[in-house]
Amino acid sequence: MVFVMRRYFQLIFFVILCLSIGCGSPESDAVSELKPYTAQVIDSLLKGQLQSKQLKAFVDGLPKSANVLNEIQGVYASNNYQLLWQDKERDAYKPILKQAVTAIKNAHVHGLNPEDYKAKQLNGLFNVLYEAPKQEGFKAWPIDSLIQAKIQLDAMTQAAALSFLQDVGLGNLKPKWDIKPRQFDFAEILADTSSTFQQKVDRVAPKFPGYYELGGQLATFQEIKKQGGWQLVSKGNTVQTKANLGIRGYDVSDWPTALKAFQKDNGLKATGELNDKTLDALNRTVDETINLIRLNLERYRWLPDDLGEEYIYVNVPDYKIQVYKEGKPTMQMKAVVGETITPTPVFYDQMEYLVFSPIWNIPQSIAREEIFKWIEINPGILYAGDTKVYYKGKEVNPFDVNWAEAKNDKLSYSFKQKPTNQNSLGDVKFIFPNKHSVYLHDTPAKKYFKYDYRALSSGCVRVEQPTELATYLLKDKEGWTIDRVKQNMAGSKERRVNLKTKVPVYIFYLTAWLGENGNLQIRKDIYKHDKKQLKQLD
Fold first, then answer.
1. pLDDT tens digits for range 41-57
2. Greatest CA separation found in the chain?
3. Which site in 81, 199, 314, 452 is 20 to 30 Å from 262, CA atoms measured?
4. φ and ψ at residue 257, rounded to 5 degrees
5. Would the pTM of this model clear 0.70, i.e. be above it?
6. Residue 428: enclosing H or E segment and its boundaries?
């Protein structure tokens, strides 16, 4: 073991020397190939290192290092402690070794830091072993050093590759969002000999549309950063604005169309005027933009691997509802989401049924904060709002209640709004039972859909086109035409209609993604998730 450790530190010195001056080996050896007997030496050394603290030294510093160490030990044990991606000949390695080293070196395309996976060390050691010998005048180095280098490269690459695949597949953070995490057997994926390393990466990478496209935007803005970024803009300065937009890729020869396009891409009203909100968006630095892209690539990894053949996707910061079928959007409409004090939660569930002409069971929170504030002054507000009051489940006349005393027993009172044109749920609600008591629904307050800022609800998601969405969801049930849907929406009694097939619903939170126009889309972080999660990510 002393001999092995001495050779290990000699090797580290040698690698550093070669990276610094690009030389061959400090020693020479007449042996040009590994002899058959050295296979036993390799097996012995490899097994010894995997069962000692030596392997831990190769793994330390990697994300999730403790987990990685156990997984890699298992991979080698199941392969009888053989080199996995190299052969026992002097200059032979399997193509997947170079593929993995290259992919790790380019980890930034996934919003990950290559140096988290020891990219420079891996690339340097690979070059020393397999590129330097191709140079003229290279002198072969001792067998024992060569064996040690192969073992080190194999173990380090396996560990780094496993850590990299885990981060691409699951991400670095564990958000308190109610979405079931993806699950993979990363050790099995790593050990699969039938796939290239890129195929392994594709297998674990997020399947939600737009992930790789957003990664492409990351590369674009990283290149912009290398060129110095963009100029910040002062109010009223068109020259600075054009320079700023030009670097971002907008055609500033068509002015103010370029500015309007930028405003749309940032969720702003396309006025073509350099107002305060537009200035804030223009003066978001290139580093801030890169970090925003990194964070949202991370968020993609929190979505399930199998989204379903057909599903509903609500992006809260974009105030938009989209229906996807076979990976492509087939319907989209505006949404109104929760206020900052009553934010719409991020979660997944399955839509099971619709309720036409719904009764609104007013939540206790709203009853305490709104109804009890005014009812003592004039109980008639309940009649005006088509609302009934119940005491311990039994309907009572609001004029017979002493509301001053009732304030001390608020939880015994409940309120229900009848299915009229004043009902806050509108004419239909879309139910996917969940612990948050959140659902999609119609609304009588249609004016809110004209607003740019639409975080205005009590937590549920209001739907701009409820008739069209209901008709679409009932398309597989015989007889449910749009006219029948409208008839049921105009009813005076509740009617529940079950869907023929449950539809997955994803209420999610992306503040950066690639738009259909090919431009980066950025939206306001209305619930301040970005700030908190970026701090955790860094």
1. 777 777 777 666 677 88
2. 106
3. 314
4. -55, -40
5. yes
6. strand 428-431
